[in-house]
């Protein structure tokens, strides 16, 4: 039975798609078969973030052009697969985004993976939450700003009312600042466990520009280690952070200046 993990947030722009993608790559590094689905039919950008540019067939084609769902499952780096949504304004006029059966879509591509990573649209649209497959585990993403935490709280309350399963929240783009809410303050406001703190890291945008994952381009960074640790925790596996190899760099310098024999 496949696991469905949905990444959600009240406020937009907090890093849901980046987290879904990087966590997907991290899970695949632990040997999982990951399929990423973009559930934002209006402002989809999973294809941009995963580096999957101009896919020939997208979910929009499946929904209105009689294409089969198998045709829009794309194999990416590290064995993750991506189902892009597409960006066709014309298509949006012909589909009612409230009546998409994600259950049916995921069932049809069940053979492609054992973890389905769902990138939800921002906001508190109960229609889309109702359409989630049963037993979907939800990760809430927030930043440390008041508006993003306030929106996360609204969404957390709605998820509870709908009896949906929340794994916890990820504090993304974190940095120390007296004017921002602290991790402890956010945890006590949201009343759900904080399952990861991901630092504010410009590598995220560098990775995005390269169409790659941060866990792939810089595996010793705190960001990469945080995402790998989260993947390990989700799987109930152990993970030892990858540290930069400072000693061998120092040894090379020492050899160079004659402090160590060649
Ligand atoms: N930890 C981070 N540190 C710095 N920048 C980040 C971090 N996480 C994401 N970003 C950057 O923030 C921007 C928004 O990220 P992303 O598109 O993943 O957010 P989103 O919540 O999916 O947005 P939307 O609501 O528009 O779908 C991107 O440029 C991304 O590279
Ligand atoms: Mg997004």
Structural notes for this entry:
There is one protein chain. The chain has twelve helices and eight strands. Helix 7 links the parallel strand 6 (137-142) and strand 7 (165-174). It has an eight-stranded mixed β-sheet, with helices on both faces. It is α/β, with parallel strands linked by helices and 262 residues long. The chain has a single domain, classed as P-loop containing nucleotide triphosphate hydrolases (Rossmann fold, 3-Layer(aba) Sandwich). The protein has helices spanning 16-29, 46-49, 59-64, 89-94, 102-108, 126-130, 146-161, 183-190, 203-210, 214-217, 222-235, 246-256; strands at 3-8, 34-38, 74-75, 81-83, 115-119, 137-142, 165-174, 194-199. The site of magnesium ion has 4 residues, from helix 1.
Shape: globular
Structural class: alpha/beta
Order of helices and strands: EHEHHEEHHEHEHEHEHHHH
Can you tell me the number of structural domains?
A: 1
- Ligand catalogue: adenosine-5'-triphosphate, magnesium ion
Query: In percent, how helical is the residue content?
Result: 25-40%
How many distinct helices?
A: 12
Mean of residue pLDDT?
Answer: 91
Give the distance, in angstroms, between the N- and C-terminal Cα atoms.
56 Å
Instruction: Report the count of strand segments.
Output: 8
Reported for the largest beta sheet, the result is: 8 strands, mixed
Radius of gyration: 20 Å
And the CATH topology? Rossmann fold
CATH hierarchy: architecture: 3-Layer(aba) Sandwich
Oligomer: single chain
Name of the level-1 CATH class: Alpha Beta
CATH superfamily: P-loop containing nucleotide triphosphate hydrolases
Task: Report the portion of residues in β strands.
Answer: 15-25%
Low-confidence stretches: none
């Amino acid at each position: 039975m496949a696991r469905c993990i949905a990444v959600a947030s009240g406020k937009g722009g907090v890093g849901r798609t980046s987290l879904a993608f990087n966590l997907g790559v991290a899970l695949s590094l632990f040997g999982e078969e990951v399929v990423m689905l973009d559930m934002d039919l209006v402002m989809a950008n999973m294809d941009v973030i995963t580096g999957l540019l101009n896919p020939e067939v997208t979910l929009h084609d499946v929904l209105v052009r009689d294409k089969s769902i198998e045709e829009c499952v794309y194999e990416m780096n590290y064995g993750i697969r991506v189902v892009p949504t597409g960006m066709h304004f014309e298509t949006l006029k012909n589909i009612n985004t409230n009546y998409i059966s994600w259950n049916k879509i995921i069932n049809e591509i069940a053979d492609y993976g054992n973890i389905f990573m769902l990138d939800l649209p921002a906001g508190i649209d109960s229609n889309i939450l109702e359409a989630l497959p049963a037993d979907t585990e939800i990760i809430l993403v927030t930043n440390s700003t008041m508006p993003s935490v306030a929106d996360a709280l609204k969404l957390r309350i709605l998820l509870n009312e709908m009896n949906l399963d929340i794994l916890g929240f990820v504090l993304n783009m974190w940095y120390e600042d007296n004017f921002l809410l602290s991790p402890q303050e956010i945890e006590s406001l949201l009343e759900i466990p904080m399952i990861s703190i991901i630092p504010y890291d410009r590598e995220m945008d560098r990775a995005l520009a390269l169409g790659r994952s941060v866990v792939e381009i810089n595996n010793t960074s705190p960001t990469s280690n945080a995402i790998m640790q989260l993947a390990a925790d989700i799987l109930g596996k152990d993970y030892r952070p990858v540290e930069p190899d400072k000693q061998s760099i120092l040894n090379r310098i020492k050899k160079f200046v004659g402090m160590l024999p060649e």
